[in-house]
Design goal:
The protein is 27% helix and 11% strand. With 264 residues, the chain is of the alpha+beta class. It folds into 3 domains: 40 residues; 87 residues, 2-Layer Sandwich (Alpha-Beta Plaits), CATH 3.30.70; 82 residues, Alpha-Beta Plaits (2-Layer Sandwich), CATH 3.30.70. The model has no long low-confidence stretch (mean pLDDT 85).
């Protein structure tokens, strides 16, 4: 009887330990998954990559794009990178995309997660159509905005005076020199990161982010009245009417309401 009691107790302790171990392991796996999902929003993908959600569903993690890159720009995410495992990405501060005209990483993709049509014009490869992200300038820490003449990012840009141009502005502090402020035009920026790689500050004051993260969105309710082509966005506009206690009255009645000012 005593032996049976000890045996049952051991089983209970073993089962409890297993349950705790499985719960802890599940927590670690779930935490790692959440980290990867969050990091995925900031991950820079190769040229021609589909939108992130579709890319993750289409990429078979074969690594062929990584092998095809002649500059070792692309890397496959491994455990500890806080990125979806086995997917290709790059870090411009380390090695940027050098904008190869033959874009060797894209045609080799067997699943079309890197879509050749997204980097083509008239059925010809066009690296300037790439949309890997968009550069953002930290104006507080960019020394050009301090008045120190630096044009490293501007000179590094492969689309000079298009993706990055310099805004010349008088320096009132010295009265002699001009600011040479780098301005990024998101209509032309491909997100190659050559500017980030070239930045002279300890931590780059210009850096590339995925377009969805870096840019705002106007929506369908505001248009450029002087630009006829911009009116196309109104096709998806929907009316939303809000009512408050004040809006129940007519505007003219609200204006004429003296609020007891004429009372004795």
């Amino acid at each position: 009887m005593k032996t049976e009691t000890i045996s049952e107790r051991r089983k209970f302790l073993l089962n409890t330990a297993r349950a705790i171990g499985l719960a802890a392991l599940g927590g670690l796996v779930w935490s790692a998954y959440l980290d990867e999902v969050t990091a995925s929003e900031l991950t820079l993908r190769p040229p021609g990559a589909l939108d992130e959600e579709e890319f993750l569903a289409t990429c078979i993690k074969c690594g062929m794009c990584v092998e095809a890159c002649p500059f070792d720009t692309l890397k496959l995410a491994k455990p500890g990178d806080n990125k979806p495992l086995g997917t290709p990405y790059f870090e411009p501060r380390d090695i940027p995309c050098y904008m190869c005209t033959d874009i060797p990483c894209v045609p080799v993709c067997p699943s079309d997660a890197l879509d050749i049509k997204k980097v083509s014009t008239n059925n010809q490869l066009d690296i300037n159509k790439a949309d890997m992200g968009v550069a953002v300038v930290d104006t507080k820490n960019c020394i050009a905005f301090w008045g120190i003449q630096c044009d490293a990012c501007y000179r590094a840009c492969p689309l000079l005076d298009q993706a990055i141009y310099l805004d010349y502005e008088k320096n009132d502090r010295t009265g002699k020199h001009a600011f040479l402020k780098p301005i990024v035009d998101s209509d032309f920026c491909t997100g190659c990161g050559l500017c980030e790689h070239a930045c002279v500050t300890e931590k780059a004051a210009i850096f590339v982010l995925p377009r969805e993260v870096a840019l705002g969105k106007v929506g369908d309710h505001y248009i450029k009245g002087w630009d006829k082509s911009d009116e196309k966005r109104l096709e998806n506009a929907e009316a939303h009417i809000t009512k408050t206690e004040l809006s129940k009255e007519k505007a003219i009645d609200t204006l004429n309401d003296m609020g007891g000012l004429l009372d004795d």
